[in-house]
Amino acid sequence: MTILEMRGIVKEFPGVKALDGVTFDVRGGEVHALVGENGAGKSTLMKILGGIYPAGSFEGKIILDGRTAEFTCIKDSERAGIAVIHQELAIVAQMSVCENLYLGCELARHGVLDRGAMLSGAKAMLSRVGLAVAPDRMAGTLGTGEQQLLEIAKALSKNARILVLDEPTASLSETEARRLFGILGQLRQKGVSCIYISHRLEEVIELSDRVTVLRDGKTVETALRGPMAAKDRLVALMVGRPLAGFYPRKKRVYGKTIFEVRDWSADADDFSERAVRGAGFSLREGEILGLAGLVGAGRSEFVMSLFGAWGSKLSGTMRLCGRELDIRSPRDAIREGICLATEDRKRYGLVLDEGVRGNITLPGIAAFSRFGVVKKSAEARGAGRFIQMLGIKTPSIEQKVRALSGGNQQKIVLAKWLMTKPRVLILDEPTRGIDVGARAEIYGILARLVDEGVGVIVVSSDMQELFGLCDTLLVMAGGRVTATLEAAGTDQRTVMRHATGEIQV
Amino acid sequence: MNGTRMLFFIRRHMMIMALVLIWGLMAALTRGIFIAPGNLSNLFLQTVTVGIAACGMTLIIVAGHIDLSVGSVAGFTGAVAAVLQVRYGWNTSFAIAGALFAGLLIGVWHGYWIALRRVPAFIVTLASMLAFRGAILGVTGGATVSPLASSFKSLGTDYVPPVPGAVIAVVVVVLCLVFSFRARLFALSAAALGFFAILLANEGIPYSVLLLLFIVILFEFISRRTVFGRHIYAIGGNCEAARLSGVNVRAREMLLFPLFGVIVAVSGVVMTARLNAATTSAGVNMELDAIAACVIGGTSLMGGEGSITGAIIGALIMSSLDNGMSLMNLDITYQYVIKGLILMLAVWADISTRRAR
Predict the structure, then answer these.
(1) DSSP letters of B80-130?
(2) ipTM of the complex
(3) A61, A84, A184, A296: least buried by Cβ within 10 Å?
(4) Do B244 and A374 make contact, defined as CB atoms within 8 angstroms?
């Protein structure tokens, strides 16, 4: 029996249509998987269901138990029995398990906390999800899997009937994941439904009763769980779309190897399980190398550690034009001509309250200064040249970059690196959140750079972009390189299969 | 001038207008005594110690840090200079050099804990605020140390002789005019002209005011025209982006704190010279005046934004309030309350016009 139906959901953000008529339904006591590439609209859809995007900010209907539901806030959705468990868990690490379970709905008598009642209540809640920890234990001391179960217990205590799990296994070990699947199976028998978002297709096929595939904000298909062969079909449904015509690269002639990385391993500094293991590649003159993979595959960590900005290196060698480099900090990397335009330009790429000029000349200021004193007119001329060359639209060179569009901001990031005359330019998600016009311009700039002999490496979650732009694709999964493919001789399905870890190399 | 340009103009010059307003108000309330050249000259003298510290403090706050130890460290370094001269008989330049060296060492100590050991500046300097208050008692033996040699004292109390003073005034005003001609800032020349006219109409240009002027220009130059200054603003604006752009954040901070230590020592030496003595309570609450001056002058406590000229105007506002209210013989109780309220109103005005933009 269908308990929830989302009909014709359309959600627009300025310049982007995130959801374009999605239809989705959930039956009582089923696990319904939601799959799709990054940016297909899964999270947006769940934010609508969870009341984060309130009624009125989107088109379409949510029908719950046959009645139209309008959620104006997260609480409304919770009251209707929907609980969303995000990838980033909402656990207060410094509070006990019991306090976390009752956070926001503490039991009290005359304003004084009723600890006894809460402790026994917490025990009952924990046993429902099979979590055998003392209720007074500090939540921060639990493992990620246990914290997840804690969140599920909290959701169930609020009488959740529909549980939304967003990438629940992304940071779980195999055993923890197994345990989670067991619990989900039990809940299913008790009539609790689960919307399961995951990139790991084996998991999806094993666990779910039905699968819905989203692509470019549209529902492609909803299918019952099929035999193993369905995996290929899922991948095809997820990526199947034609390449658009705005990739300007024509000439693809390769020269000698300019940048080579061998057996690169690094560990995170923050005790997380993210890591890079034995990754490597070689980049020839005139070639664009693409790094493909799912979110969390270790691509950003890999390029950040090459740049001297992430984790601690365990092993590996890096050669630029045959010369071995020892890079310990971004400063070293920039000096050697290796530049990284990071993911999330607002957080890592730009000083938002600084002007366009100040941002562009930040890494390359030395070229405009003598004895530590900046030659202002030369600096302004230099910045102006790049503003013109990259077609950055800004009212003045002193304009704070915060007020500029994403496309212009990204061009400023490009400008600041081009100013340092890089020999290798690495770009992490260079076109995320950028409109199509600016995207095409950025592709044009990259094509020009490659023709000038700069080595270009692009990390992207956009398959279309990778295939349109790159010559060679490096596929990563779990911190390892699972495949190195000629873009011309492969297809998106193959890449996706390597990225989901289906093919072990 | 349309609405947005008007607002922009108000925002840019708000604190200057506030200063003019306060001066007008004080002049009216004191029946003109406040704006007599003698008093204004005195007002500038009173601004020097906090003004010097505020110049350095601006860079510290712009870098995203804070320094609560300014008062204690200024008091301590001032005491070191006095003790070296009075008890050990060092001549003036050696005594001052000793104090500046002490300031440098304190700055290195702060830099070590803040930049290299990553202890928050708030904590490190809070510890120093206590520790150096105690150290003042240690070096002075709990007693006032005086008197100083006349050459030391003159730094705080004497005036440049009329002829060289007039030459300096003419040179600075001409330079301002030249600069103004390029940047179209004629108000600056007018202000410089008025400033020197007031001083020369009285007893001349005090050495300490000249020193403040030099430090303001120096820090204005550091903040706007040097790679170091650029990096400090970038670190405060977005530390992670600065690091990923190749800025050696730790090295920059390791340079900033010792520089600030020396500046605070300079302000401590001037303070001692002005009092002609080192006292155990010298510099109490000075850090708060310096921070207030920066904040009134538009420096953002979040880091990344602020200017030296703003901080000096802020320091002038603070000392104008002190001076004016003393002239009015206002009860000290109200003086504190009014200063507190003005600080809050200034920041509120800053935030609200920022939002409107």
Answers:
(1) HHHHHHHTT---HHHHHHHHHHHHHHHHHHHHIIIIIS---HHHHHHHHHH
(2) 0.83
(3) A61
(4) no
